[in-house]
Amino acid sequence: MIPHENLLESWKKAAGTRAAELVEDGMLVGLGTGTTAHYFITALGQRIQEGLQIKGAVSSSLGSQELAKKVGIPVTTLDFNPTLDLYIDGADEIDPFLRLVKGGGGALLREKIVATAARRFVVIADETKLVQRLGTHCPIPAEVVPFAITPVRRRLEALGALVKLRQKPASDAPFITDNGNVILDCTFPDGVADPEAIDTAMQRIVGLVDTGFFLKMAEEAIIAGKDGIKVLRPN
Questions:
Q1: What is the C-alpha separation between 137 and 134, in angstroms, rounded?
Q2: N or C of the chain: less Cβ packing under 10 Å?
């Protein structure tokens, strides 16, 4: 049973607020993208207004960057600060090994760049994002160079995926990432039994820039749900 939307939002807010407590004075922080990350950014802004002093924050999308500026978070870039202390972001799916599927908001490439620049990556989510097998509830997104859509699509289909070009909401126009690329959403009918193998195969496709698999990257997960907050670590 899917929880009521208001309850889901309260869980997301609880996870984001708890994650903001992890930020300490003097840190360089990575800011994720999406609804749960939105609550984290807002809570971090509130802490800064209350006196927390960080060196700066790197955003994984233009949207998150604008929100950060709005709530008073000092913004920097990886050019000036290539190593971050902490990255906080949401996920579309989380399995028991803390392997993730991300990219529902279309920012997967920048999210992965920021995540790999951080010493510590903590994922935040509500309990509906927990799955036993990745690809069960959402497609695996792939960011693709527009010139290569058709050959990449064919190679993804050869891996067993049902492939759909992501479109803008209420539009026939393709969704365009902050990097000027498109997203091909890949549905595997039975989910993905071996994420490492499928990710490796997808990464070998010329024209495919990156996938929404975030494997062996998250150190812990802050999960909010009907029983409150739980902190999970890989099995």
A1: 8
A2: N
Whether 202 contacts 146, CB under 8 Å: no
d(CA 43, CA 160) in angstroms, rounded, equals 41
Residue 111 annotated in active site: yes
Whole-Å CA distances, 219 to 57, 83, 118:
20, 17, 11
- 191-227 burial: b if 16+ Cβ within 10 Å, else e: bbeebeebbebbeebebbbbbbbbbebbbbbbbbbee
Which numeric CATH code is attached to 140-210? 3.30.70.260
Q: Is 104 annotated as a binding residue?
A: yes
pLDDT > 90? residue 3? no
Looking at this protein, which amino acid is placed at residue 115? A
Residue 34, marked binder: yes
What's the fold here for domain 5-131+215-228? Rossmann fold (3.40.50)
Does an H or E element contain 191, and which?
none
Tell me whether residue 89 is annotated as binding.
yes
**Residue 45 labelled as part of a binding site:** no
Task: List pLDDT tens digits, range 183-212.
Answer: 999 999 999 999 999 999 999 999 999 999
Q: State both tokens at 44.
A: 């971090």
Q: What type of residue sits at position 228?
A: G
Residue of 5, 21, 66, 111 with catalytic role: 111
pLDDT for residue 5 = 81
**Each residue of 28-85: pLDDT tens digit?**
999 999 999 999 999 999 999 999 999 999 999 999 999 999 999 999 999 999 999 9
For residue 136, give both structure tokens.
């069960």
Q: Report domain extents, the chain.
A: 5-131+215-228, 140-210
